[in-house]
Write a structure and sequence with these properties.
With 97 residues, this protein is mainly alpha-helical. It contains three helices and two strands; from the N terminus they run αβαβα. The chain starts with a helix and ends with a helix.
Length: 97
Amino acid sequence: MLQTNVLGCCADARRAAADPPHAGSSIINMGSFAAHAYEGGSAYCSAKAGELQITRVLRLELNGTGIRVGTVDPRPRRNGILARRFQRRRRARKETV
């Protein structure tokens, strides 16, 4: 997970630096609401938080170059899969109490 989200983001930034994009270009990373943490998601949340920090640092480093850096952070939708996932967690928590 860290390799894909954090190291992949670094590798893409390195490639962009080797062949600088033109002013007016954008670097957009795919974030997640998980960068802000949720119970049971330590590995994924850590990876997405690392990606968010890389995006923030790149934004600072490329400031003044005309290259914009940002992230898209999709939010979860209420659906059956998500409901079942959190329902199992709630049940497991009740059983341990």
